[in-house]
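In response to reviewer comment 3 from the previous cycle, which asked for concrete evidence that the modeling workflow produces usable outputs, we include below a single protein chain processed end to end. The sequence was submitted unchanged, and the resulting structure tokens are shown without manual editing.
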Amino acid sequence: MRLLHVTLAVIATPLLTVGASAQQAKPAPKAAPKSTDWRTHVVQTTSGATLTGNPAAKVKLVEYLSYTCSHCAHFIAESKAPLYDDLIRRGQVRIEFRHAVRDPLDMAAALLARCTGPKGFGAATQAIFAEQETWFEQGRTWWQANAASLQSQPELARIKAAANGSGLSALMQKRGMTTATIDRCFAATGDMDKLTAMAKAAWETIKGTPSFTVNGKPVAGSDWATLQPELRA
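The workflow returned the following structure tokens.
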């Protein structure tokens, strides 16, 4: 009996060793693939509109917005979490921002936002809308006091003066834009001409801002409560 016990112990030891080695040699589980954040996929069309999101998204949303429209500011704040941070981030919706410029302050804001480049446009737009009440009131007062004396200046110079007088330039400087960069935003008329043409086309299509189309179909309402079911349909 004693011999049998020893023999079994000797046989069992290598088996335990082999089992332990096999366990240690198991490959580590693969990490889950990192999902794409489609908010970082931003391009500009030849017409000047800004496209954000998954090109293969089944839902294509077009927004017509104005930086001096209070309803637009409300829409941007209300829709950021469900639309921008969820549906666009996950690639469910692709959004196209079309400028429906209404006035010199609106043009100044649009030129500054676009001057940050496609990658910076979304964050700049959010910041401009978030501070709209402050810079718009300051800018309106400044424009009423100075518009007459600016008439002899070229249009782009008047727009730049409005950006400075309203506090829009200061807002963008707080976000890291240098004085030299801001000067370049107003150095040539190319982008302003593009925005003017885009606004003309927009106002031939819409009656007010904000306005939306989903997969080419106009949306009747002008708020997130109306738009959301259209997107999720």
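The longest strand covers residues 59-65. We consider this sufficient to address the reviewer's concern, and the full set will be provided in the supplementary archive.
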